Predict the 3D structure of the following.
Amino acid sequence: MSGCRAHWIGLSICIVFAALLLAKPAAAGPPYVSDDPEPTDYRHFEIYTFNQGTATRGGTSGESGIDFNYGAAPNLQLTAILPAGFAQTPGGGTSIGPSNVELAAKYRFLRQDTFGLDVAFFPRVFLPSGSNTIGDNRASLLLPVWVQKDWSGGWSAFGGGGCMLSEVRAVDFCEAGGVVTYQILPKLQIGGELFHQTADRRGTPATTSLGVGWRYDLNDNFHLLGYVRRGIENTDETDRYSWYASVLFTF
């Protein structure tokens, strides 16, 4: 990547995070790659049934599954993701099987009503998939911090980042992203995301992408979410296009 391009990518990410610092809680997190610091409400559930994937020059891969979230205590969310994965290569067959189970806990240690920003630590463990073709057949740990600011009038911004550690205790890659959302209608929220991930230890190059997402509230308990993304750095190798779609149940 040229120095000029690196400069503009870095500047764009800085602009997103500056928006976080300038700023009614807003729904965030999925469908975006970047997460948010707001935990599930105490003694409530958020359950996503989802499908997601990415297409590159080497093929298309992704997952379908269930994402369980429970408000175990004030400011504490427990998460378990149970996915089944698929991988398809050009001219080859399609592999299907269990993917990486994810276990996580989100703890919000700063709140907007007292600090001006929501800030949370959201460590996430990825268990081995048990396959050399689906997911990652090794354990890993993601250690991110997420920040959010909401404004009156329907605007919200959130983002952050962290690094992934492999089972050999070495940094595999780091990631950072930011999202700005707007409540365009009482039941419809739209948003845009800038996301970057560094090159990993297996030789996958760095990737930067732009995405747009939306959330439509059918009622208080059922919600539809969608997201599409395209890479703007090393596009053919990392992200020709990506998608996420889910039905969210809240109660």
